[in-house]
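Weekly structure sync - notes
Attendees: PM, LS, DV (DV joined late)
Agenda: review two folding runs queued last week.

Item 1: First target. Sequence and structure tokens pasted below for the record.
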Amino acid sequence: MARLAKLFGRGEAPPRVDRIVVGLGNPGEGYATTRHNVGFQVASRLAKRARAEFAVKSADSRIAEGSLDGVKLAIVRPQTFMNDSGRAVRKLLDRYRADPAALFVVYDDVDLPLGKIRIRERGGPGTHNGMRSIVGVVGEGFPRLRVGVAPADPTAEIGELVEHVLAPFTADEREAAEAAIARATEAVEVALRDGITRAMEQFNG
């Protein structure tokens, strides 16, 4: 009980949830509107749909606990920086006593065209440092949704890509970005309600 008290406070058991939806991003107002924070934006919209507030501060994260279509959710914005996302995810799994399969991670992808989204049931991290951190800690066995933020110039160098993801969407990109974030939010809800296969069929076309 002493260990539980340390983890959860006052000896209380953790809340039970069916799924843990993690939107990746960097904490702080300076990063809020950047391409690298589309995961945070999807998480925020999903929380509004669930009528949940990010009121819980635990596991190096801000957490909104609620229900959507009968599914009990923890919707999460990690407060570690992107490259250390795995630390927050490990603590989240400990908090909810959950397996990695309970995760659903949403993040930006510079290898996917702007406006496109893709859902996968499991797999490697690709070129995304936040996903590399998570996979390095908990393995590959969890579903994920990528939101495309690729630059217009496909020959951009690594340094240019870093600057690209850490900058806000341009005026010309904003409409496509907003549509993709809205579509990604809907896709997460479908995956939670109807299953990952149904969501892939509907949104990966």
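Item 2: Second target, run right after the first with the same settings.
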Amino acid sequence: MEHLNAFLASYGYVAIFGLLMLGIVGPFIPDDTILVLSGLAAHAGKLDLSMTIAVAYAGSLCGISLSYALGRAGGIHLIERWPYAQRSIGKHMPTVERWFDRYGKWTLFFGYFIAGVRHFTALTAGMSHVNFRTFALYAYPGGLAWVVSFILVGYFLGDQWEHLRHQFERGAVVGLVALIAIAAAGWWWQRRRK
């Protein structure tokens, strides 16, 4: 995360735009973290809040539109023919298709908020031949809601971010120890009953 923070600090708005555009097309960039860190930078006065939101939104729109275009242009053929895409993207497609079948076009709006789903909703919409106007009607407002909410989380957490992060890490360690203890006790109890 420190490398990402340094990258954002060095390249500012260009980094936000590029990382979000690429992050939505592929699931290998932590989009949510980028948005929160951008909000933190705006809180610290390194970036302008409204410009940060505008640039992040533009990056997400370019990424989601590119993803839709790839799906429309035959993205499924790429997934079927390229082994790397089959392993990294193909395994998530059934989940996204179920979401898309169940929740329809609203998946384009709310899919932004679910990592893993966000990266494939536009691709699935393109492969399903959802017309562009319908796609834009649901996906673009969803992108705005996602960008604004995550940037504002970082902006309003501000100085509390490091404290909350340390508290979370400490809580995660305690939770992990408790989970291991419960699992060990359950295993011991199971063996004793047998």
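Discussion on item 2: Residues 2-158 form one domain.
Action: LS to circulate a short write-up before next sync.
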